[in-house]
Design a protein that fits this description.
Length: about 350
C-alpha cells in the first residue's frame, strides 16, 4: 500500500520567475527532496506545474510514503512542504492552498513488477546486510592483524592512533549532518576496504619474502659443507645446527682422534644462530666462558660463526682420554666428546 500527500497551490502570474530563481520556491523544494531521502518511509517526491501560457500557474507537490504512520509523522514535524510554502507566501495566490492525504488503491496483481521488487528487497536485505557487515569485520580483523605483525612497535602505535582518529572523524562527519548522501557513505566504505586489502596484501608479500630470505642461508650451506668434505679426503667435518653438533649423522657426537697427532676438524654453521666450537683443556674443564682462537684451550677459527660460515679447529692431545667440547653460545645444548686413543 502507498500513501500520498498532495499539496496544490497557485503561483501569481507575475511571480513565476521569482519562484524559479536559485533561492526561490522550486529550488527550496528540490533541496527538500534530499532531506526526504533520509526520512523513514519516504518513497518519492514529484513536483508538477500547469503549462498554461497566461494567468496563474498551478503547482502540484506530491510526496509518496510506504505507510500512513510515516506520512503523519512527516506532516507534524518541520521541515515539510507546508513550512517551505509558508516562507514564500508573497508569490502564492491567497486561499489557493489545498492539502490532500490519499491512499493509493493498487494490488500486487495489478503491479507485478513492484510486487517482485518488494519481495526481492524483503528477502535480500535481511541476508545481505549481516553478510556484508560480517565480511567487512573479518577484513578489518585480518588486514589489521597482518599489518601490525609486519611493522615495528613504534609504527604500529602510530598506525593505530591514525586509524582511531580517522574513525572519529568519519563518525563526527556523519553525526554532524542531518543527511549524508549514499554515494559518500559508499565512498568511505570503498576507501576503507581498499586500504585494508592493500595493507593486508603488502603484509603477506613482505612476510613471504622474509621467510624466503631466512631459508636462503640454510639452503646454501650444504654445498659448502660438501665442498669442504670433497676438498679434504678422509678429513673430519662437523656441522653446527640449531642447537647441536653433527658428525657422520650423529648429534652430540663422539669423535675419535689419535694421541700425539695434530688434528683439524672442518666446521660449517648450517643453522641460523651464531655458533662456535670450544674444546676443554687437559683437565677437561673450560677456563673461559667464550673462547678465542689462538688461546691455550682449542677454539674454532673464526671464534664466531654466522649462519653459513665455514672454518676449522686444530688441536692435539698427547695423552689418551675423553675431552668434552661445546658451543659457548649454547653450552647446555650443543656438546660432544673428543676421544683421544
Amino acid at each position: 500500500m502507498e500513501y500520498i500527500q498532495t499539496v496544490l497551490i497557485q503561483i501569481r502570474a507575475t511571480m513565476t520567475d521569482e519562484a524559479s530563481r536559485p533561492q526561490g520556491l522550486l529550488a527550496a523544494l528540490d533541496e527538500h527532496r534530499s532531506f526526504l531521502e533520509q526520512h523513514p518511509g519516504f518513497q518519492d517526491m514529484r513536483v508538477t506545474r500547469s503549462i498554461n501560457a497566461e494567468g496563474n500557474v498551478l503547482l502540484v507537490i506530491e510526496t509518496h510514503w510506504s505507510d500512513d504512520h510515516s506520512l503523519v509523522e512527516y506532516e507534524t514535524r518541520e521541515p515539510n512542504v507546508m513550512s517551505i510554502i509558508n516562507r514564500h507566501q508573497e508569490i502564492i495566490v491567497a486561499d489557493s492552498l489545498q492539502v490532500l492525504d490519499m491512499e493509493a488503491l493498487r494490488t500486487a496483481a495489478g503491479r507485478p513488477a513492484d510486487a517482485a521488487a518488494e519481495a526481492t528487497e524483503r528477502l535480500a536485505l535481511p541476508l545481505l546486510i549481516p553478510l556484508g557487515i560480517l565480511a567487512f569485520s573479518l577484513l578489518v580483523i585480518y588486514g589489521l592483524s597482518r599489518i601490525y605483525l609486519e611493522v615495528s612497535n613504534e609504527v604500529a602505535t602510530g598506525l593505530a592512533a591514525g586509524i582511531a582518529l580517522g574513525i572519529l572523524f568519519v563518525a563526527w562527519y556523519i553525526a554532524s549532518r542531518p543527511s549524508v548522501p549514499g554515494w559518500q557513505i559508499a565512498s568511505i566504505a570503498v576507501l576503507a576496504t581498499a586500504l585494508l586489502a592493500g595493507g593486508a596484501i603488502f603484509a603477506v608479500v613482505e612476510d613471504d619474502e622474509g621467510e624466503a630470505l631466512e631459508e636462503t642461508p640454510a639452503a646454501t650451506a650444504s654445498p659448502d659443507d660438501g665442498a669442504a668434505a670433497d676438498g679434504a679426503p678422509g678429513g673430519l667435518a662437523v656441522s653446527m645446527g640449531d642447537n647441536f653438533f653433527e658428525f657422520e649423522g650423529e648429534t652430540g657426537p663422539t669423535i675419535a682422534v689419535a694421541a700425539g697427532e695434530e688434528t683439524t676438524i672442518d666446521l660449517t654453521n648450517d643453522g641460523l644462530a651464531i655458533h662456535n666450537m670450544h674444546i676443554a683443556g687437559t683437565d677437561n674443564e673450560f677456563g673461559v666462558n667464550i673462547c678465542k682462537s689462538g688461546e691455550e684451550e682449542p677454539c674454532s677459527d673464526p671464534d664466531l660463526f654466522q649462519s653459513g660460515d665455514t672454518g676449522s679447529i686444530t688441536f692435539s692431545f698427547d695423552e689418551p682420554g675423553a675431552f668434552i667440547f661445546r658451543c659457548d653460545f649454547h653450552p647446555a645444548e650443543m656438546t660432544g666428546t673428543i676421544e683421544v686413543q
